[in-house]
């Protein structure tokens, strides 16, 4: 096979085109191939790309799939030949590495950026190639990476955090950031910050520990350049820390103190979106601490700032808190905005929040629609905790219908799904208590039995499904 391939690679027909072999070497480093449109990112050193494509295609070394945006592929056996025979110059490998970093950083943005849908699709299109180039070597075999490479690793890890979170990608980025003896604190803190991926996968306790460490690093005095950027990153990390703390910590005073500390730091920033997000999370924390008037004031300030900035995502995220303290905004309109983001992760969070709100407003038919959407999207993004929460809400929804058999099955599925998440001790126990109450109810249908509401509901009272008027009250 090698002999056969070499006859084509070393042929005079291929050699007479000075751009053909460099392009072949570049494409051999891209296991998923690429499109003719994206080839300009990868093959920056190739002057005549169209003629090189034609030469390689005629030589049978390149396949062009015109049905998939003119995707270009080097046949796998040819890729292997080029790699194993040492035919890819170090200069080309370095150029592809550099091009990969530039591509990632050119499309880097967080979930609340208006360009996220477009940029996220661009990164997803080259996902396999990016992972092969930036994450191809095991962390233990990493050479000391350049600052640009670390920035690209972190940016791509954030993309995956918001789309398809994976701990191996996060761990690789952390290892790379720490590889330098004199690592840039901004890089190390940003990589450790990515540890909140654990929360995406259901382990909020571990996520909280990583966020604490990252926030501490961001706020430790250093000689790193870019003080303004460091303060902004510190503020964003602090907001995420508050969001996780209110799910993990039991001490309301500790959570409130942290929220105030972060808001105070963010108030000094020139970035109005970060400032607004800190106010929004402060409002949510105050609401959780049973201070509704104060909560409403800060949530209102946050909404005003976010609306002025045109920040759709965070404007949507502020709605559940506002509605819960009886501020009447249109749920349907907010969901339409969430759909426009084309971000599955965002839609998962929003649909679950809105399902909760709609149940509280006795709009059960609409609530079911959003809970089902949340469960479907949580399964797609592998968000185990959100899947469990959606299943628990389904159990609650069935209870509201008086359908005890399906409610039992939903709670049983939720309890199983909660296993492996940091929330398991409380949440799984709550589901199992409701399962036991359902059994009790089925044994005596005339008995009035209260059930625990889902954990996201701020109403801590028991829920009593509709029962016949002749029923008797249970002390269960």
What does this structure look like?
- The chain has 25 helices and five strands.
- With 476 residues, the protein is an all-alpha fold.
- Strands 1-3-2 form a three-stranded antiparallel β-sheet. A two-stranded parallel ribbon has the order 4-5.
- A hairpin with a 5-residue loop joins β2 and β3.
- Among the domains are: 1-88, Arc Repressor Mutant, subunit A, CATH 1.10.10; 343-476, Tetratricopeptide repeat domain (Serine Threonine Protein Phosphatase 5, Tetratricopeptide repeat).
What's the helix and strand layout?
Blueprint: H1 2-9, H2 12-15, H3 20-27, E1 34-35, H4 39-42, H5 49-58, E2 62-65, E3 71-74, H6 76-84, H7 90-106, H8 116-125, H9 127-134, H10 147-163, H11 167-177, H12 185-193, H13 197-200, H14 204-218, H15 227-248, H16 252-267, H17 272-288, H18 292-309, H19 312-324, H20 331-340, H21 344-360, H22 364-381, H23 384-401, H24 404-418, H25 424-443, E4 447-448, E5 472-473
Parallel strand pairs: 4-5
Antiparallel strand pairs: 1-3, 2-3
Helix pairs in contact: 3-5, 7-9, 7-10, 10-11, 11-12, 12-14, 14-15, 15-16, 15-17, 16-17, 17-18, 18-19, 19-20, 19-21, 20-21, 21-22, 21-23, 22-23, 23-24, 24-25
Keywords:
476 residues; mainly alpha; Serine Threonine Protein Phosphatase 5, Tetratricopeptide repeat; three-stranded antiparallel β-sheet; 25 helices; 67% helix; disordered C terminus
CATH architecture of the domain at 343-476: Alpha Horseshoe
Order of helices and strands: HHHEHHEEHHHHHHHHHHHHHHHHHHHHEE
The name of the CATH superfamily of the domain at 343-476 reads: Tetratricopeptide repeat domain
Helix-residue proportion = 55-70%
Shape: globular
CATH topology of the domain at 343-476: Serine Threonine Protein Phosphatase 5, Tetratricopeptide repeat
Query: What's the CATH first level of the domain at 343-476?
Result: Mainly Alpha
User: What average pLDDT do the residues reach?
Assistant: 84
Q: Please work out how many helical segments DSSP would assign.
A: 25
Based on DSSP secondary structure assignment, what is the total number of beta strands?
Answer: 5
Strand line-up of the largest beta sheet: 1-3-2
N- and C-termini, Cα separation: 75 Å
Q: In what range is the share of β-strand residues?
A: under 5%
Structure class = mainly alpha
The whole-angstrom Rg is 27 Å
């Amino acid at each position: 096979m090698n002999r056969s391939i070499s006859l084509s690679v070393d042929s005079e027909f291929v050699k007479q085109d000075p751009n053909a072999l460099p392009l072949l070497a570049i494409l051999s480093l891209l296991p998923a191939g690429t499109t003719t449109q994206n080839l300009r990112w990868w093959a920056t050193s190739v002057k005549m790309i169209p003629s090189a494509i034609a030469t390689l295609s005629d030589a049978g070394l390149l396949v062009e799939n015109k049905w998939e945006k003119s995707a270009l592929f080097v046949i796998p056996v040819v890729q292997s030949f080029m790699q194993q025979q040492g035919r890819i110059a170090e200069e080309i490998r370095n150029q592809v590495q550099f091009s990969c970093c530039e591509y990632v950083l050119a499309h880097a943005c967080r979930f609340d950026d208006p360009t996220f849908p477009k940029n996220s699709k661009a990164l997803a299109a080259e996902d396999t190639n990016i992972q092969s180039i930036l994450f191809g070597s095991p962390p233990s075999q990493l050479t000391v990476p350049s600052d640009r490479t670390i920035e690209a690793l972190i940016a791509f890890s954030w993309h995956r955090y918001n789309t398809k979170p994976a701990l191996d990608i996060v761990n690789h980025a952390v290892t790379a950031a720490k590889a330098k003896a004199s690592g840039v604190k901004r890089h190390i803190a940003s990589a450790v910050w990515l540890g909140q991926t654990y929360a995406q996968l259901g382990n909020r306790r571990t996520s909280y520990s990583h966020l604490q460490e990252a926030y501490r690093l961001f706020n430790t005095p250093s000689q790193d350049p870019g003080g303004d950027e460091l303060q902004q990153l510190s503020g964003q990390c602090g907001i995420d820390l508050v969001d996780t703390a209110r799910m993990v910590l039991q001490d309301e005073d500790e959570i409130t103190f942290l929220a105030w500390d972060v808001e105070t730091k963010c108030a000094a920033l020139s970035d109005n979106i970060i400032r607004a997000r800190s106010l929004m999370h402060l409002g949510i924390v105050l609401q959780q601490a049973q201070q509704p008037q104060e909560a409403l004031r800060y949530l209102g300030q946050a909404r005003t700032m976010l609306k002025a900035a045109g920040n759709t995502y965070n404007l949507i995220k502020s709605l559940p808190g506002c509605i819960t303290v009886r501020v009447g905004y249109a749920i349907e309109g907010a969901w339409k905005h969430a759909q426009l983001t084309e971000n599955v992760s965002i839609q998962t969070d929003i649909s679950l929040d809105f399902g909760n709100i709609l149940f509280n407003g006795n709009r059960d038919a609409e609530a079911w629609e959003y809970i089902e959407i949340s469960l479907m999207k949580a399964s797609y993004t592998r968000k185990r905790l959100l899947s469990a929460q959606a299943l628990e809400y389904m159990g609650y929804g069935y209870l509201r219908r008086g359908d005890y058999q399906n409610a039992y099955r939903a709670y049983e599925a939720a309890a199983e799904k909660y296993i492996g998440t940091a929330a398991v001790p409380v949440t799984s126990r709550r589901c199992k208590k409701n399962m036991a109450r359902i059994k009790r109810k089925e044994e005596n249908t005339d008995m009035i039995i209260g059930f625990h509401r889902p954990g996201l509901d701020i109403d801590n009272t028991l829920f009593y499904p509709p029962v016949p008027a002749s029923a008797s009250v249970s002390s269960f």
